[in-house]
Specification:
P-loop_NTPase; nucleotide-binding; binds adenosine-5'-diphosphate; FeS-cluster_ATPase_SufC; binds magnesium ion; ABC_transporter-like_ATP-bd; 10 helices; single chain; alpha/beta; Rossmann fold
């Protein structure tokens, strides 16, 4: 599904290299967790995969089903089946949620050579997904994320994710700042979407989220590369012992 080879990237207008020859494979249907200390490059990895222009890839590739997404525009990546939920979801004043969701769905459909989704079908689809996620009609009528609590923004991201039905979903510290109820909403949303055809990359600093989203594999990121991989027990080990030990051994 996703094969990252020797990914090396830096901040676009600086010399600061952040990803240092990162190798990572995420199998089809797999839920892979990436854990790592603050500043290890977790968010940078998700931004680079999303195609944010303030990062520059200097080496390597990221193959999604064999195609290098690093050569695609961000909207092409989305159409190819990539979805990213960010640590800090953006607010879009003046753009209604329904307008935003419709544009997202139709942009994806257009790139896939499909017709626009008819409005009644779209409304039905959104309402069905929103209901499952406990998103009120009032929330659907507001501007994207404007005035939403942290928990509401996350619910909203899960709504976007479930509507777009990606092949690969990347969640970057989607647990930060969430209370336990909101955390469960995110986890339930992800768990409901688990399927043999879909992979998840769950990026988190803390083990807590992984109590609710059971990963198949855990990778540890440090100084811009994966330094260790293991089963779910690796997350518990990190929680108990901290990162210093493992990072020190790899250095
Ligand atoms: P993590 O998500 O693991 O905490 P980040 O990817 O946010 O790590 O950051 C990795 C390193 O790159 C840190 O040292 C951070 O300060 C630096 N960094 C990330 N983005 C930028 C940026 N836009 N400008 C300058 N430094 C950055
Ligand atoms: Mg950080
Ligand atoms: Mg981060």
């Amino acid at each position: 599904m996703l094969e990252i080879k020797n990914l090396t990237a830096k901040i676009a207008d600086e010399d600061k290299q952040i990803l240092n020859g990162l190798n990572l494979t995420v199998e089809k249907g797999q839920v892979a967790a990436i854990m790592g200390p603050n500043g290890s490059g977790k968010s940078t990895l998700s931004y680079v995969l999303a195609g944010r222009s303030d990062y520059e890839v200097t080496e390597g590739e990221a193959l999604l089903d064999g195609v290098n997404i690093l050569e695609m525009d961000p909207d092409e990546r989305a159409a190819a089946g990539l979805f990213l939920a960010f640590q800090y979801p953006i607010e879009i004043p003046g753009v209604g949620q329904m307008t935003f969701l419709k544009a997202a769905i139709n942009s994806q459909r257009k790139k896939q050579g499909l017709e626009e989704m008819p409005t009644p079908e779209f409304i039905k689809l959104v309402n069905a997904h929103a209901k499952k996620l406990g998103i009120s009609n009032d929330m659907l009528k507001r501007s994207v994320n404007v005035g939403f609590s942290g928990g509401e923004k996350k619910r909203n991201e899960i709504l976007q994710m479930s509507l777009l039905a990606p092949k690969l979903a990347i969640l970057d510290e989607t647990d930060s700042g969430l209370d336990i109820d909101a955390l469960k909403v995110v986890a339930d949303g992800v768990n409901a979407m688990r399927s043999p055809d879909r992979s998840f990359l769950v990026i988190t600093h803390y083990q807590r989220l992984l109590d609710y989203i059971k990963p198949d594999i855990v990778h540890v990121l440090s100084a811009g590369r994966i330094i260790k991989s293991g089963g779910p027990e690796l997350a518990l080990e990190l929680e108990a012992n901290g990162y210093a030990d493992i990072v020190g051994r790899a250095a």
